[in-house]
Specification:
about 55% helix; two-stranded antiparallel ribbon; elongated; about 280 residues; alpha+beta; about 10% strand
Length: about 280
């Protein structure tokens, strides 16, 4: 797999070249004038507007569309050469049969991008590697005879970092409010990464998230008497509740205890609206 990363793509788009490409399809000069005004509007930084002579505003509503116009020429070139590839905005992967072929394609396509499109390839982030070693839009592949689509390690790490931030035990948010915030994030995350073909990863993530929430509840109950009362209120037997409430173990260790698992079962979090990431 040839993984090509364009360096500061949205900052380097050549305005005249972009408008020239657009003018080949759009005859209405008013539209072209509006696009140029969008490109030349400038960028506000710390209250000051800086002029823009190249590039498209990153995050702007037109930028993804304009990027496809710029890189359509790259798509046509790859098709002309008979390559199998995928591209989304400035992220592009080309699939070849060998590492040697990959190095050859990397060199030739880099020349095309530099000379023809007037863009720059980020050599540090671009590489030739096996598909399971690379990533594309947050996904990668498993190894073996039947590769499956999996969540890239970096994407999984970012998800856990976000969940840790939302479930910090030092936050002054109640458990229900915390689950609501978490649900908003996880619903969107599941809508994208739920299409992976490794459900065991999603099941492990589900379990880990619920364990963090049990830690939060245990921390918020604070002292032994309060903890004992809460466990008993949720149907935990006296002896088991007393053992857990008097334990010297930390919240993370206790979160896997039979007492807390019984008091705060998976169904409890389902009722609060916490989405399950793994398929049923």
């Amino acid at each position: 797999m040839v993984d090509i990363d364009l360096e500061q793509f949205f900052d380097r788009v050549h305005h005249d070249k972009l408008l020239g490409r657009l003018a080949q399809r759009v005859r209405d000069k008013r539209v072209l004038k509006l696009v140029r005004a969008f490109l030349n509007a400038g960028v506000m930084e710390q209250g000051l507007v800086s002029p823009t002579t190249e590039g498209t505003p990153q995050g702007g509503p037109l930028s993804p569309f304009l990027s496809n116009i710029v890189l359509d020429e790259l798509d046509r070139e790859l098709e002309r050469r008979g390559h199998r590839f995928v591209r989304y905005a400035d992220d592009c992967n080309i699939y070849v049969r060998s590492e040697r072929a990959g190095q050859r394609v990397m060199e030739s396509i880099t020349r095309f991008i530099t000379k023809k499109l007037k863009l720059k390839v980020n050599q540090e982030k671009s590489a030739v590697a096996r598909p399971e070693e690379g990533k594309f839009l947050g996904f990668s592949f498993t190894t073996g005879w039947e590769p499956r689509r999996r969540i890239a390690p970096e994407a999984l790490k970012r998800c856990k970092e976000r969940v840790r931030g939302l479930t910090r035990r030092t936050r002054t948010v109640g458990l229900e409010g915390m689950v609501k915030e978490l649900s908003e994030y996880l619903t969107g995350w599941k809508g994208y990464f739920g299409y992976c073909q490794t459900p065991s990863v999603l099941r492990d993530l589900d379990s880990w998230i619920r364990r963090r929430l049990r830690c939060v509840a245990w921390k918020q109950w604070k002292r032994g008497r309060k903890r004992y009362t809460e466990l008993r209120r949720r149907g935990v037997r006296k002896q088991l509740a007393a053992k857990a409430a008097g334990s010297t173990h930390g919240p993370w260790r206790i979160s896997r205890s039979p007492a807390l698992s019984y008091a705060l079962p998976n169904a409890f979090f389902d009722a609060l609206g916490l989405p399950r990431l793994a398929p049923n």
